[in-house]
Design a protein that fits this description.
By secondary structure, the protein is an alpha/beta fold. It has twelve helices and twelve strands. Strand 11, helix 11 and strand 12 form a beta-alpha-beta unit. It comes from Paenibacillus anseongense.
């Protein structure tokens, strides 16, 4: 039986949309792509000064939040001729790692983290760092795509001097896409929205706040539209926006997300 028969399912991502659409169609649903994640671009020049600072100064802590972002920083350091110095600094310092991809990369680099957050969320990382002493410590934080003000505030309130490394930047999605999706949400013409990154959630709700329709969108998600997250980090972003009913699979995969949605409709 087609569990998604008659259901209109929005895909908020911009990657692997064809594969996700096919999965939805196989379950009888109608996929609609509304990419809420703006383009992401690499700006290595944005971190040159910070990387040189790391190479030439004492660093007490490195906090790595993504594996791909950490690799990017090492590539940028290679171009600056300081990769070996940076790697040694990382090995000599205390290291905190968020998520299994980051942990696996550090293992390949023969770096053993002092603090590990396997939960994969920023709040989970903050919780694990809560017992650490950052007074008068220089802490380098690797970020990917967007700032993390809660993490930076946490470190600074505990006396750290924070250096942020953010080589990737997001560009906002098209306003027409946001407008269309909000209309679909508030008119009940869609049944579920599948979010594949936390930044998609942020862009959607920043738009709703600008338009003064946040309450209407939250009401739609609490009554007639299912909010679906690919994993814990994305689910955390949805809950931070006041969405208490979030469908999230145990395994962080796009296919697993669609299967979890099917299971929810089967109840």
């Amino acid at each position: 039986m087609d569990k998604l028969s008659g259901k209109k399912i929005v895909i908020a991502g911009s990657r692997k949309t064809e594969e996700m659409s096919l999965l939805i169609q196989k379950q009888g649903g109608t996929p609609v792509v509304r990419p809420l994640q703006g383009f992401i671009y690499l700006d290595e020049s944005a971190v040159e000064k910070e990387l040189l600072f790391c190479a030439n100064n004492q660093v007490d802590w490195f906090v790595f939040t993504t594996g791909v972002g950490t690799e990017t920083l090492l590539d940028a350091a290679e171009k600056l001729g300081v990769a070996s110095i940076l790697l040694q600094k990382m090995k000599d310092a205390n290291v905190a790692a968020r998520g299994y991809k980051t942990i696996n990369l550090l293992k390949k680099l023969e770096i053993k983290p002092t603090v590990i957050d396997e939960d994969g969320t920023i709040q989970g990382l903050i919780n694990r760092l809560d017992d650490c002493d950052f007074a008068n410590q220089t802490v380098v934080v690797q970020l990917h795509g967007e700032p993390q003000p809660a993490l930076i505030q946490f470190l600074e309130e505990r006396g750290a001097t924070v250096v942020q490394l953010l080589p990737y930047r997001h560009i906002e999605p098209e306003s027409a896409v946001l407008e269309t999706l909000c209309h679909e949400l508030t008119t009940g013409s869609i049944d579920a929205v599948c979010f594949t990154t936390a930044v998609q959630v942020r862009y959607l709700f920043e738009y709703t706040r600008r338009q003064g329709i946040s309450d209407a969108v939250r009401q739609a998600f609490s009554t007639q539209v299912k909010a679906v997250a690919v994993g814990k980090v994305t689910a955390e972003a949805l809950r931070d926006e006041g969405l208490n009913q979030v469908i999230v699979p145990e395994t962080e995969r796009m296919g697993a997300m669609i299967i979890e949605l099917v299971k929810d409709y089967s109840k």
